[in-house]
Each structure stands twice: as structure tokens, then as C-alpha cells.
């Protein structure tokens, strides 16, 4: 009788472990999907910010270029046109970020770094472990001095 009960309990425990494993897998999948959606939303906001900034910067760049060009021609001083050069680099960068392939190129470079230069991504003192976090928590806990 005890053997049958033990066998039944073992089966129930095995089913419960499988159920718990299935649930933890579902939870992990949901977390991955949620984190990816948050990442996509943040990237969309960054691109939208770049597009909005480009509108304002484009207006400033146009006015500055027009004013500096007119000033250089009227005063016959080509040196007044010099600030347009660095401003145009900023304008090109913003256009590339807002509507170009900058994000794609950055993604490709990040993938290259992850594959070819992964040692650059290591954290100081390595990846935190449960034990290292727990040691810091215990050291900072007011109860730790009492329990020692």
C-alpha cells in the first residue's frame, strides 16, 4: 500500500514540477517580449525626437546659412561663411539619424563588437552573482550588525 502511495506521490510531484517549469518558461517568454517592446518604443521615441529636432535645427541652419552667405557677399569677407561648414556636419548627422541609415549602421557595428570584441563588454569584477549581491545586501542591512 505504501509503495502505491509513494508512486502516486512521485507522479504528482513530477507533474507539478513540469507545470512549474512550463509556467516559469511562459513568464520568461513574456518578460522577453515585454522588454523587446519597451526597447522598440524607446528606439521609436529616439527617432521621433531626432525628426522633431531636425525641424528646428533645419530652420536654424537655413537662417544661419542664408545670413552668413549674405553677410559674406555684402562685406566681401568669405571668412563669414566658415561657420556653415561645422553646422552642415551637424545637419547631415541629424538627417542621417532621422531619415537615413545611421541606426542600421550602428546596429551592425554593435553586432561586430559583440562578435569580435566581446571582452570590451565585460563588467568590472565580472557579472554580479546572487552571492555577491547577497553579501552586499547583508553588509548594508541594519540587522547584520545585530546578528553577528
TrEMBL record:
Domain of life (superkingdom): Eukaryota
Pfam families listed in its UniProt record: DUF2368 (PF10166)
Keywords from the UniProt entry: Membrane, Transmembrane, Transmembrane helix
Heme is among the record's keywords: no
InterPro entries in the cross-refs: Plg-R(KT)
Gene Ontology CC, one term: plasma membrane
GO BP term (any one): positive regulation of plasminogen activation
Transmembrane segments: 81-99
Chloroplast listed as a keyword: no
Protein name as it appears in the record: Plasminogen receptor (KT)
Gene name as annotated: PLGRKT
Amino acid at each position: 500500500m505504501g509503495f502505491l502511495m509513494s508512486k502516486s506521490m512521485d507522479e504528482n510531484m513530477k507533474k507539478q514540477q513540469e507545470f512549474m517549469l512550463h509556467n516559469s518558461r511562459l513568464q520568461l517568454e513574456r518578460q522577453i517580449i515585454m522588454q523587446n517592446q519597451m526597447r522598440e518604443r524607446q528606439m521609436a521615441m529616439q527617432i521621433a525626437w531626432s525628426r522633431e529636432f531636425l525641424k528646428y535645427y533645419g530652420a536654424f541652419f537655413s537662417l544661419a546659412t542664408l545670413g552668413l552667405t549674405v553677410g559674406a557677399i555684402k562685406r566681401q569677407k568669405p571668412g563669414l561663411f566658415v561657420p556653415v561648414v561645422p553646422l552642415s556636419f551637424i545637419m547631415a548627422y541629424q538627417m542621417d539619424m532621422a531619415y537615413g541609415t545611421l541606426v542600421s549602421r550602428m546596429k551592425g557595428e554593435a553586432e561586430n563588437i559583440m562578435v569580435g570584441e566581446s571582452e570590451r563588454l565585460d563588467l568590472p569584477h565580472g557579472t554580479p552573482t546572487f552571492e555577491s549581491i547577497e553579501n552586499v545586501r547583508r553588509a548594508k542591512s541594519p540587522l547584520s550588525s545585530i546578528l553577528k
